[in-house]
């Protein structure tokens, strides 16, 4: 090695120079996805991301001008990865079912590979600026259209709306992987969720509801400020996102003259969120015991729980979405309690599933429960009170996911 080469490797002072890795942008994207996924877009700073990478904020800003630029690039990158993952073979002789399975394998692989960012796409895409949100929506729409086209070949008797119902259900099952931290080998996961998705396609749907099934909204008297604050806060969190709602906003929505009045009932905004989440978690948990006690077998108990979960989710759509979207904003000690309640509830559901399907491993049954929950929430959000996604139909689809 020449003297000049030696100095290039060691630096002018004879010390080793740390060269920038060629894949630094990829490292930044991966680290930011994990950080955003854990704490949400608003809960992470550029300093947090830089610290996680062991670099300075200045070094991070050389690659990305702002946190939003990093957030935007990561979400749209994964949106593009999803559209690429569903490209099927041009071989027209492949059976339609095989082509659909090929698409499902691609979607599952893309979700596993980008698990943290898929969670952002599911729950924090609304924080994109309008023009970027249009791009992400178009990417997601292209996935649904591709699924619609394959389903139409398999099920030509279905209407356009029914095809979209099943496509939305399938996408909810696949992307549910991002809503929890359980793990399975990719081959096992492909088989499990692929079979669950195919089960959604191979049986006639129950008739659509003839009228809207919107649940009766319980009127809360103005004097019940504790309950009124809880409801109004959840509605605002759902509409704007937790970080964009102030205590003053909640007080005004509940008809209180000043934010200080809120503190007579709750310690702060995060306390309201935690109270709402405890209610959501307890509702799922509390339904299990009565369902088991009042039925003759696991199949009947699971049927009761499915109907109850669909009814509760549809009656409280805002709360169901806020529970997943804003979980990172609950204080750490409260998150631990909520996770424990959720874990026990999922285990009980999974136990019933395994009593009906003993061939499943415990981890596989838990994955199916998470998938069924996510699918119901997604259908409730996508279709609202449209009779095409009535409660009987959604309950039927939930049973298909759980029981095959």
Automatic annotation (TrEMBL):
Database matches in InterPro entries: Homeodomain-like_sf, HTH-type_TetR-like_transc_reg, HTH_TetR
One Gene Ontology term of the molecular function aspect: transcription cis-regulatory region binding
Transcription regulation found in the keyword field: yes
Domain called HTH tetR-type: residue spans: 22-82, 223-284
Gene3D superfamilies named in the record: Homeodomain-like, Tetracycline Repressor, domain 2
Region (Disordered): 1-24
Key words, A-Z: DNA-binding, Transcription, Transcription regulation
DNA-binding region in chain numbering: 45-64
Keyword DNA-binding found: yes
Alphabetical list of SUPFAM superfamilies matching this protein: Homeodomain-like
PANTHER family tied to this protein: HTH-TYPE TRANSCRIPTIONAL REGULATOR BETI (PTHR30055:SF234), HTH-TYPE TRANSCRIPTIONAL REGULATOR RUTR (PTHR30055)
Protein name: TetR family transcriptional regulator
């Amino acid at each position: 090695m020449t003297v000049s080469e030696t100095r290039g490797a060691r630096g002018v002072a004879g010390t080793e120079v740390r060269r920038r890795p060629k894949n630094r942008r990829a490292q930044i994207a991966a680290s930011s996805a994990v950080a955003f996924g854990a704490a949400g877009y608003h809960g992470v700073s550029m300093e947090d991301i830089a610290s996680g990478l062991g670099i300075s904020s200045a070094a991070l800003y050389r690659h990305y001008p702002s946190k939003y630029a990093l957030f935007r690039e990561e979400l749209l990158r994964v949106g593009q990865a999803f559209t690429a993952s569903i490209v099927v073979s041009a071989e027209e002789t492949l059976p339609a079912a095989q082509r659909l399975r090929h698409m499902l394998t691609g979607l599952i692989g893309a979700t596993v590979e980008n698990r943290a960012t898929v969670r952002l796409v599911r729950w924090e895409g609304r924080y994109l600026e309008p023009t970027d949100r249009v791009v992400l929506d178009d990417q997601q729409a292209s996935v649904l259209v591709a699924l619609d086209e394959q389903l139409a070949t398999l099920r030509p008797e279905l209407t356009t709306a029914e095809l979209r119902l099943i496509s939305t259900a399938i996408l909810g099952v696949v992307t549910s992987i991002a809503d929890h931290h359980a793990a399975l080998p990719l081959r096992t996961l492909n088989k499990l969720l692929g079979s669950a998705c195919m089960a959604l396609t191979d049986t006639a749907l129950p008739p659509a509801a003839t009228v809207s099934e919107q649940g009766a909204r319980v009127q809360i008297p103005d004097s019940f400020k504790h309950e009124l604050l809880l409801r109004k806060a959840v509605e605002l969190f759902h509409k704007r996102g937790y970080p964009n709602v102030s205590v003053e906003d909640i007080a005004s929505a509940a008809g209180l003259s000043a934010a200080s009045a809120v503190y007579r009932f709750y310690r702060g905004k995060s306390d309201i969120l935690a109270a709402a989440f405890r209610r959501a978690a307890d509702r799922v948990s509390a339904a299990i015991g009565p369902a088991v006690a009042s039925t003759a077998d696991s199949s009947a108990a699971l049927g009761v729980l499915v109907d109850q979960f669909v009814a509760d989710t549809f009656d409280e759509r805002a709360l169901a979405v806020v529970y997943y979207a804003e979980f990172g904003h609950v204080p750490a000690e409260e998150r631990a309690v909520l996770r424990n309640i959720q874990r026990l509830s999922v285990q009980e559901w999974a136990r019933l599933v395994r009593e009906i399907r003993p061939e499943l491993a415990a981890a596989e049954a838990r994955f199916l429960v998470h998938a069924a929950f996510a699918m119901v929430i997604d259908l409730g959000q996508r279709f609202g009170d449209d009779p095409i996604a009535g409660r009987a139909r959604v309950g039927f689809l939930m049973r298909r996911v759980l029981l095959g």
